[in-house]
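Objective 1b: paired records.
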Amino acid sequence: MVKASLRTIDGQEYDIVDERRSVECFRCGICCMGYHPQLSETEVERMAGHLGISSHDFIAKYVQVTQIGYLLRQTKTGCVFLTWENETKSLCSVHPFRPDACRNWEPTLFRRECKAGLTKIQKDHGIMLVGEIYDTEEQLERFYAALQQDNALRF
C-alpha cells in the first residue's frame, strides 16, 4: 500500500490512501478544489519537462512556495490544472504526469470528498448516496464487489 498525504495551506494533513476498495472517480472535481498537492523537486522537474518549460518557470506559474514546501497553486475554481467538460465533469490537464499525491488518491464511497461528489451529482442526476441505500457493512462490501465485477466485464 502506498502511503501518501495531502496537506492544506493551514498545515492540516490528510491521508490519501484508504484501505477500502476504490471506485471509479466520479469526476466531480471536489478533491481538486479542496487540496493543494505537495510537490517534490523531482516532481517539479518532471512536470516542467512534460510541459516543455523550465523548472523555474513552472514554479513561477503553477507553484505556491510555502514553509512546508512546494504546493500546486489554486485558482478560484480549484487546482491550476483543473478544467471542465460541459461545466459538469472535471478533467486534469496534466493527468498523464500528475503529481504523486494525485496519482495515489483513491476514490471510495467512504471519503467525505467522494460523498460530496455524489451529492453534487445527485442534485443534477437523481443519484442517491450509498449511505441512503445500504444499512450494513456487509451490504456495502457486496456493492463494492459488484462494482468491481461490473467494471471487469466492461473492459
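Objective 1b, second protein:
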Amino acid sequence: MIKIQEPSGTWEMAHMDWVTSEPQVGDRSYNACQVIVDRFSKNPIFVPCHNDDTAMDTALLIWNRVVS
C-alpha cells in the first residue's frame, strides 16, 4: 500500500463529501450539505447545497467558498 503524501501547508489537499437526505431549509430549499476539510489544519467548511447539483454547481461552490 502506498502512503498518501502529507500536505505541508493549508489547503494544499482537501477531502470532500456530501451529507444528503436532509430536510429542506432556508429560502432556497437546501436539502444537502457539502463538507470540505483541509487535510493540513483539519478545518472544515460546510456549504449548503442541493442533492441534485451538477458538477458545474459543485465547482462553483468550491470556487466561491474555498478558492476565492
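Strands lie at 14-19, 32-38, 44-49. The CA atoms of residues 14 and 38 lie 5 Å apart.
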